[in-house]
Design brief:
Keywords: Exocytosis, Protein transport, Transport. This is Exocyst subunit Exo70 family protein. GO terms for molecular function: phosphatidylinositol-4,5-bisphosphate binding. Belongs to the EXO70 family. This protein has 554 residues and is mainly α. It contains 18 helices and 4 strands. About 13% of the residues have low confidence. The chain is rod-shaped, with a radius of gyration of 56 Å. The chain has a two-stranded antiparallel sheet. A hairpin with a 3-residue loop joins strand 3 and strand 4.
Length: 554
Amino acid sequence: METLAQRAALLRESLDKSKQVTDAVVSILGSFDSRLSALDSAMRPIQVFASPFLPASYTTSVIIIVWSRPDNVALSVQVRTHAVRTAHENIDRTLRSADVILTQFDRTREAEREIQKGPHENLQGFLDAVDRLRSIERFFSSNRSYRSSDGVLNHVNALLSKALVKMEDEFQKQLSQRSEARASALESSLKNLGVEKLSKEEVQRMPWEILESKIGNWIHFMRIAVKLLFAGERQLCDQVFECSQSLRDKCFAAITKNSLATLLSFGEAIAMSKRSPEKLFVLLDMYEIMCELQIEIDTIFVGEACSQMRDSALSLTKCLAQTAQKTFSDFEEAVEKDATKNIHTDGTVHPLTSYVINYVKFLFDYQSTLKQLFQEFKREDGTGSELASVTMSIMQALQNNLDAKAKQYKDPALMHIFLMNNIHYIVKSVRRSEAKDLLGDDWIQRHRRIVQQNANQYRRIAWSKVLQCLSGQGLTSSGGSGQIGSDGGNSSGASRAAVKERFRSFNMLFEEIYQKQCGWSVPDTELRESLRLAVAEILLPAYRSFLKRFGTAY
């Protein structure tokens, strides 16, 4: 560029001198115009000086006057007046063109200085310089006849490329600063809500009572973060970078990455922690909120830049589902293998029974979530859903465990009281819950029969000896004296002593059973009344019959 400028300056000086010479020649020719016609034969060719810088069409005619001898014999170059004028006009055009070109060179140097500075200090000046370079590029592109056009265009295009790189660098810097500021603001918002940055090890070492509370908070935080905070940031990025989808996604990902990772990390720590039955419900709560938010997450975290974040959220949902399913299996196994030895001496409902039933009843509060969890489908045999199968398995495991616990009772009658109480509690609870529709009437009727069978067994075992005291067998008198009325109106032949002993044995056994069963429990009022009536149905008629038959002998 400096070399070209020097050459242009020399050209300007040469052209000025040529103009002076031309003016002088015009004056001379004006005075000798009448004499020029005689010198046509002596005219020599006009010598053309072509500028190495200007287009070939712009030529300067140089008039050369040669004096062949000092005795005023002059040989001159005949130039017609119109030729001289044409040369003058060419010189003017050349000067004007050179002035325009030099102006473009000056503009190029000014723009280059601004480009070298970069956009950070003076963005508007930088952009103006880019506009000037584009104008210069258009000028030389439309005047390709200039011999230096290609070189100038190459230089201008190189400056424009450099300007683009500097603009991209500055933009990336500004974008990074903005993303960092918005990310910090988002993290502060979550912190103000109560979100804590906890490592997975810290989460897994927490006492369950504290952890359960934090899980409830986490569910609340996830809903607010996705529906309000992340959605708001997405809307803001879409407005600021409306012209570019990739920039919108990239900026949004940079802003929300750490905040989302903090929330998901807590969920992952819970999903990977040691499984236990009491964690099932919070796992279902967490799985439920992730399923609820999944569509919104896919919508908000759209684009390639957010793909890893979408995958992380989906991975947590699947991990929670797997952990919940395994917890179900663990619970069923734990119920069947519960080795609690401290059974109640009164045969009442065992704590395991009430725990399992309450557990199952709570499960039905999550019925829609469980259906999604198990991906409910109809079995080939049409017996019901996966949830029904799991529920039945848990109930069967409970019954197996109760059967094992019942064997710890030394009194067979109390053993049946225990089974009767517990199975009745199960049936009654199922009938009053949504499990009724899932398990079906057949299941309920089958277990009601089990309750009745245990009641009958209790009645038979507990009262069989008492009923034997009220039978007439063995109450015959060898002497035949002493007439005791009977239903047939004839004497039974029973001795007074034998009858008295029977009454004494009856009273003694009845009191013994009474004292023993006063410590037994049938907590359900309806079942207790039903059992009392069942005992009365066999005991009172036998007592009345015995009293009527042998009462006079006593």
